[in-house]
């Protein structure tokens, strides 16, 4: 039986790994993720307010700790400072065209690991149980609530609670 690794640990690790530069209101920054989601309020689990693509220049409107209220034209919202850079990122190699966004994944590609032929291949080579792994992951993720994640971030002083 696998030992479950709570999703909140993965989220917290991601937030902790995102070092942020000191930005000031009125300054400019660049988005450094393939797609940066702007939030309605400065909280990790807030509702989305918009999206901005990689390398866009944004204006920092307000600073609240590690959270920045930014705008690009009519699009505005809050982002964690670790999602921005003081310098424009290199856009020449956007992962060689490979789509890393779930919204860009086709149903066929997403279902491929569950195909019986793939499962049989993995079993023959003792590579594990793809279906079982996916079911375990989905069940583990379903147990995690927004409150649990927020509590973990506070206790560990991660993300906005640094």
How would you describe this structure to a colleague?
With 162 residues, this protein is α+β, with helices and mostly antiparallel strands. It has a single domain (7-161), classed as SH3 Domains (SH3 type barrels). The protein has five helices and seven strands. It has helices spanning 7-17, 107-111, 116-124, 130-142, 146-156; strands at residues 28-31, 35-39, 48-53, 57-64, 67-72, 75-80, 84-85. The strands form two sheets. It has a five-stranded antiparallel sheet, with no helix packed on it. Strands 2-3 form a two-stranded antiparallel ribbon. A hairpin with a 2-residue loop joins strand 5 and strand 6 (75-80). The model is unreliable at 11-20 (pLDDT under 50).
Summarize the structure.
By secondary structure, the chain is of the alpha+beta class. The chain has helices at residues 7-17, 107-111, 116-124, 130-142, 146-156, and strands at 28-31, 35-39, 48-53, 57-64, 67-72, 75-80, 84-85.
Q: How do the strands and helices of this protein lay out in sequence?
A:
Blueprint: H1 7-17, E1 28-31, E2 35-39, E3 48-53, E4 57-64, E5 67-72, E6 75-80, E7 84-85, H2 107-111, H3 116-124, H4 130-142, H5 146-156
Antiparallel strand pairs: 1-4, 1-7, 2-3, 4-5, 5-6
Helix pairs in contact: 1-5
The largest sheet is: 5 strands, antiparallel
Radius of gyration (Å): 19 Å
Roughly how many Å apart are the termini? 35 Å
Just give the CATH class.
Mainly Beta
Report the helical percentage: 25-40%
How many separate domains make up the residues?
Answer: 1
Shape field: elongated
Q: How many extended strands?
A: 7
Task: Provide the β-strand percentage band.
Answer: 15-25%
CATH superfamily, please?
Answer: SH3 Domains
Q: What would CATH call the architecture?
A: Roll
Strand order of the largest sheet: 6-5-4-1-7
SSE class: alpha+beta
Helix-strand pattern: HEEEEEEEHHHH
Give average pLDDT, whole number. Answer: 77
Q: Supply the number of helical segments.
A: 5
CATH topology: SH3 type barrels
